[in-house]
Specification:
By secondary structure, this protein is mainly beta. It contains four helices and ten strands, in the order H-E-E-E-H-E-E-E-E-E-E-H-H-E.
Length: 273
Amino acid sequence: MKQWLLAGCLLIGGVLTAQRQTNLSRSELGIMVGGTYYIGDLNSMHYKNTHLAGGLLFRYNIHSRLTWRSNFTYGFIEADDADSKKDLLKNRNLSFQTKLFELGSGVEFSYFPFQVGHDRYKGTAYLLAEIALVRINPTTNYNGDKVELQPLGTEGQGTSLSDKSNYSLTQLAFPLGVGFRVSIGKRATFGMEYGIRFLFTDYLDDVSSYRFADETVLAAENGPIAADLSNRSLDGSRFGRRGNTASRDWYAFSGATLTFSLGNPENCHFKTR
């Protein structure tokens, strides 16, 4: 909770700072619309299971090549071993889905000088670097019901099988991306963007450990549902591979942006060098 309060203060503080500097003409507010997908233990293919995503975007143009921005993004990701072409993964039989609530803030570095509505500086490519907080909650379908996975400790978290506690549902992420944007008229911009969100967890999909936990101990300490969802192998093997501890999970957002100047851009004069 403290992390979300801090992020909210940063977002509000940045907006107030922009306003204090008299420069609504440097500020933009708009929307993002696109898709999200995930790469991790249950999926290694880009754009597979892409789902609709969207959010709000605020920009403050510090000068013609540097923009501070904040954004709130909502997305959804999922993966299912049943969709895999590999028999080994089909037999593992794991699946998950989660909503994503992301609050990020960072900077855009423009390749060319850019100013909203300027006759000469009409468009640019840019690089994006942010820090974000992400709220996740992996679930799966079990006997027709949607079950939250984190409280179950499916890899022995919180039991004598592991020295780990249950992972946090609020995670830190580092969005990195590329994009471009162009002026449309005197007070609006349109852009396209692709960004990867690197996480500090391997439990976006609730899967990390290389081997299955001992089902007998897990059932005794975390309950029978935890044991059932820890190992869903079709062949019932207790010695198959569950995940990969060597790599972290991440997800991506790609889509379009549309922003509008909060003031008159003609009142804003940037240095272009």
